[in-house]
Specification:
OB fold (Dihydrolipoamide Acetyltransferase, E2P), 5 helices, alpha+beta, 2 domains, 11 strands
Length: about 260
């Protein structure tokens, strides 16, 4: 019995020592994590025509083993081994096949944007309320990147609708097939078996919505001015902060 008690005492002492030796988090890093901002260091880079695939390690996150490496995919960009980046959000996928690489990633994170600029972090931290005023919802900040409104003016196609009116009258178009004409501002191919498009025509709704997300099996380029026809869905929640108030699904390009 005495031996058993001594073993328990040793286990308790070891636990206290381990806990006491755990390094404290840097306050700045803690604020970043509260905002969902992750710090990563690149281990490997694979370039393709549409994507840059990055193998990375995350640093400064106590919930992540810094020895573990993960893969992410972003729109084609310059990067090299040793680069440090910051990101928010991301959409994880398992068993993702890359046709161009002829390779399947067991797990990969699709990220909208990576930043090297410390101002990205400073602006996010500056937006955090003080600890005394922080509520439980203060850290529930959207992780989707901000999209800038283009200075363009594209008239609605005959028999179609402008993006601004689509958002303003969205309930009238739920589950209905409509046509919109606009400009491609972002193209992300082969995610969840679909190509994803951000689309603008220069109009906006009464509450300032101006960017329409479209899914399609067709390939386009940023800058293309096109007419799409597809079914409208409302309040589409894909998880991981990817929520779409209005989305056009399975759209096709209309040739005039």
């Amino acid at each position: 019995m005495k031996i058993y008690s001594n073993i328990l005492r040793l286990v308790f002492i070891a636990t206290v020592i381990l806990v006491g030796c755990k390094p404290k988090m840097d306050p700045k890093q803690a604020e970043m994590l509260k905002l969902g901002i992750h710090t990563i260091v690149i281990e490997d880079v694979i370039q393709t025509s549409q994507y840059t695939y990055l193998q990375f390690k995350e640093t400064g996150n106590p919930d992540v083993n810094e020895k573990d490496t993960l893969w992410c995919a972003v729109s084609a960009m310059e990067a090299q081994k040793g680069d440090k980046f910051y990101y928010k959000g991301g959409f994880p996928m398992e068993n993702f096949p890359s046709k161009e690489l002829n390779r399947t990633f067991a797990k990969i994170l699709f990220i909208d944007d990576l930043s090297k600029n410390p101002d990205f972090v400073k602006k996010e931290i500056a937006a955090v309320p003080s600890h005394n005023s922080m509520s439980s919802t203060d850290t529930n900040i959207s992780r989707k990147p901000k999209i800038e409104k283009l200075d363009i003016k594209i008239d609605a196609v005959s028999g179609g609708i402008s993006i601004g009116d689509l958002f303003t009258k969205k309930n009238s178009y739920s589950n209905k097939t409509v046509k919109v004409k606009g400009q491609v501002t972002k193209f992300s191919p082969e995610i969840m078996g679909k190509n994803w498009i951000h689309f603008q025509d220069g109009t906006s709704s009464k509450d300032g919505k101006f960017d329409l997300t479209i899914t399609t099996d067709q390939t386009v380029k940023v800058g293309d001015i096109l007419i799409f026809e597809g079914k409208i869905a409302l309040n589409k929640d894909l998880g991981y902060d990817y929520f779409y108030e209005v989305i056009m699904e399975d759209a096709k390009i209309v040739v005039k």
